[in-house]
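Task 17 of the worksheet. Students: predict the tertiary structure of the chain below and write it out as structure tokens. Keep your answer in the requested format; marks are given for formatting as well as content.
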Amino acid sequence: MRLDRPPPGEELRGDAPVAKPRPAATVVVARDAADGVEVLLVRRHPDQRFMGGVWVFPGGAVDRGETPARTAIRELREEAGIELGEGAELAEFSRWVTPREVKVRFDTHFFVTPAPPGCRPCPDGEECVAVRWITPPAALAEWRAGKLELVFPTVKHLELLAQFDSTDALMSYARSARVEPVEPRVIIDTEGPRVVLPGEPGY
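Model answer:
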């Protein structure tokens, strides 16, 4: 994936030392709709130094004493006003580590959960200013048309999420998924920076 410019807060580190990634957690909330599986995206406040104005899944850094799963639950409540009830299923879906070439790095656990019945997400107005339900194919189409600002990990997760035709199928996959850390790299060539994944040419 070619980068026209780094997202806010994701500047390349240049000659600075490689930063240690900070533990973080993100949660994909999914629900079944007429057009297929919809997922919840939140838009970060444009004034935020990190990822300002970008549409992401709810999430954030792990606080001291928290597990990544607990962080995902807390961030979902704080950013989108969704409370996962006792016994709600939260399955780890993937784990991504920010490239070493980037200044600010996170080691992020991605979880998936079915949307609680009747939930009505509401942005907190501070970290996040908007929320929306959207199918992964629609989100990717808007991104390609320049109508939705996304970052590389969100794009790649939406591409994977687009393969599922129901929330049950998604949760079944997540329950049996073998989660291994994925650490992309930023390669700079004559055309500028691009992000590559393990196994791709140039990694």
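Marker's comment: Residues 42 and 131 are 4 Å apart (CA to CA). The mean pLDDT is 90.
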